[in-house]
Write a structure and sequence with these properties.
The protein has 352 residues and is an alpha/beta fold. The chain contains twelve helices and eight strands. It folds into two domains: 212 residues, Rossmann fold (3-Layer(aba) Sandwich); 116 residues, Rossmann fold (3-Layer(aba) Sandwich). Helices cover 43% and strands 11% of the residues. Helix 4 links the parallel strand 3 and strand 4. Helix 1 packs across helix 7. The N terminus is likely disordered.
Length: 352
């Protein structure tokens, strides 16, 4: 498993906590020494007694899980976290109601994924931010990968290399044009870093308990990642081949040593389109690579994937992962950590 760097690109808003938190997160990734470690979900009643509970609006259910863990840990039932998207919603397609936009405008902090994930909400988020609203677009702070990175670098064996000034400039230009992959949560180390950053940001208005709880939730995510890695270890290296409905597992492939050989819908959005030539080429690639499964998204229809699988001579499974949303009650994917564990189990089952 390749460690993820802690480099962060510049967001539209300069977060006061980012610089001071960087050193702490570096230590937290290796050890919890010197940091009060508490169980995620417990409440810091003594240190948080006089803390203010900021109202937080979160766009996706996945980020909502992490933010809620931090807030509940800090202030218990007094936490005020609202998640805009319902369970099962496709974040690329979701549009906020006028009432939700009004709620966002009143929030002490809006936590958005960013990098174009919330396509149907971008105008509303940008308008609120232009009016001085406190918007934290977390994905751009986590050294985002370009779309298609895992596929393009599959032969590099995930080796680190120094970027030239020209490469850095090209990546920055791609970022400006929305060509970075927004699906960072499939790298659990990046999500752990996100928890720390969010906790530090909430601490600016809510008190130091939020920062401590951000570190605690990050530690819990890192512990769960060890379980995810154990599940994935049963997949032989030669079988670590992925085909997905859209370009959503780039971070997963990069972090956990998989190879993406094709996507059904080109690009990082479920709203993209494909054509018969591209599908024919994908069928040929899947035949050559002896692909065992196509991985879709529980939030989208699998009909196109089923048709594609039927075009192949060998038995190819269509497996729906929890990609853009948590699962409902009794799904086994009701929190971010549970979602990553069940996705790992589904991938291992489909490829073993």
């Amino acid at each position: 498993m390749k460690p993820t760097t802690n480099k962060r690109t510049t967001n539209k808003r300069l977060w006061g906590a980012t610089v001071s938190l960087a050193a702490m997160l570096t230590v937290a990734g290796c050890s919890t020494a010197g940091v009060e470690t508490i169980e995620a979900g417990s409440v810091l009643t003594d240190s948080a007694e006089n803390d203010f509970a900021p109202s937080v609006v979160v766009t996706t259910t996945i980020l909502g899980s992490v933010v809620s863990d931090i807030a509940t840990c800090a202030v218990g039932d007094d936490s005020s976290v609202t998640v805009l998207m319902p369970l099962g919603a496709d974040p690329h397609d979701f549009q906020a109601s006028s009432a939700q936009v009004a709620q966002m405008a009143k929030a002490d902090l809006i936590v958005a994924n960013g990098l174009g994930l919330e396509e149907g909400m971008m105008d509303a988020i940008e308008n609120i931010e232009a009016d001085g609203g406190p918007v934290m677009e977390i994905a751009s702070l986590l050294d985002p990968l370009p779309l298609g990175y895992a596929d393009e670098h599959a032969e590099d064996d995930n080796a680190d290399h120094d970027h030239s000034a020209e490469e850095d400039a090209a990546e920055e230009e791609a970022h400006d044009h929305g060509d970075f992959d927004p699906h960072f949560w499939f790298d659990m180390e990046r999500m752990a870093l996100a928890a720390g950053l969010i906790g530090a940001e909430l601490a600016l208005t809510g008190g130091e308990a939020y920062e401590t709880c951000g570190v605690s939730v990050a530690s819990d995510i890192r512990a769960t990642e060890l379980e995810v890695v154990t599940v994935l270890e049963e997949i032989p290296e030669s079988d670590r081949i992925l085909v997905t409905d859209h370009d959503s597992l780039g971070y997963f492939a990069d972090r956990y040593d998989f190879r993406i050989v094709g996507v059904v819908i080109p690009g990082g959005s479920t709203l993209g389109e494909t054509n018969s030539q591209e599908l024919a080429a994908l069928v040929a690639t899947m035949t050559t690579e002896n692909v065992a499964a196509i991985f879709g998204d529980t939030a989208t229809n699998s009909e196109l994937l089923d048709v594609l699988a039927s075009e192949l001579d060998s038995d190819v499974s269509v497996i729906q992962l929890y990609v853009g949303s948590l699962g409902g009650p009794d799904s086994g994917a009701e929190t971010y950590q549970e979602m990553m564990l069940i996705n790992a189990a589904l991938i291992a089952q489909g490829l073993s």
